Amino acid sequence: GQIYVNDIPAIQNKPPEHIQIGEEFNFAPNIKDLNEKDPYDQDKPNTHTCSLVEAPQDMQLNEKTLIWKPTEADAGTHNIELLVSDGLAETKKNFTLYVNDKPKIISSDSLTILVGDTLNHFITAKDQNTTTDLTYSIRTAIEQMFLNVKTGELIWTPKTEDIGLHVVEVAVSDGFDTSIDAQQIKIVVLGYPSFL
């Protein structure tokens, strides 16, 4: 007779750790198994079955590939457990997937200020990931304009030579490469009316 020595299947590749809302998540496990033949029929190749033990509600397993397109309601961390079996033994792969919401600037993009007054404008961003630290940045030629990178507060005291229209570009990031939103802010500086 023959003795079948079974090698426990193992998942070799790592799934993505994070994904943006609206992007499609795809993960096909690369299964390593030293057994080339089926344990019950040596004329057939060894095959594996995959099943989801724990996953987000809409995640699907399609021919050993995990597929999911998260929505805004899915922002945050999700635990996923994938089970692979060769018919004799099984192995589990546990991992977490972070669904990131790209921050969106929702504050006004049009401001007016009088010469000599101090502009205190907070750039406000909406982000479904409430624990994310947002960082603000600015591009401007105005030397005396300041931006607090943590709070998004824009501070500027225009002078007489600043009367007119100014356009500055501000941006917000949550630390992910593809998660940046930019906004152009139009600032009109008005002078005091002169009396004859």
Describe what you observe in this structure.
This protein is an all-beta fold and 196 residues long. The protein is 0% helix and 45% strand. It has no helices and 18 strands. The strands form six sheets. It has a four-stranded mixed β-sheet with strand order 2-9-8-5, with no helix packed on it. It has a four-stranded mixed β-sheet with strand order 11-18-17-14, with no helix packed on it. The relative contact order is 0.18. The model has no long low-confidence stretch (mean pLDDT 91).
Which key features would you list for this structure?
196 residues; four-stranded mixed sheet; rod-shaped; 0% helix; 45% strand; mainly beta
* Uncertain stretches of 5 or more adjacent residues: none
Structural class estimated from helices and strands: mainly beta
> What kind of assembly state do the chains in view correspond to?
single chain
The Cα radius of gyration reads 28 Å
Helix content: under 10%
Shape: rod-shaped
Helix-strand pattern: EEEEEEEEEEEEEEEEEE
Number of helices: 0
Report how far the terminal alpha carbons are from each other: 115 Å
- Widest sheet, order of strands: 2-9-8-5
Question: Tally of extended strands?
Answer: 18
Strand percentage, roughly? over 45%
| Global mean pLDDT | 91
How does the major sheet shape up?
Answer: 4 strands, mixed
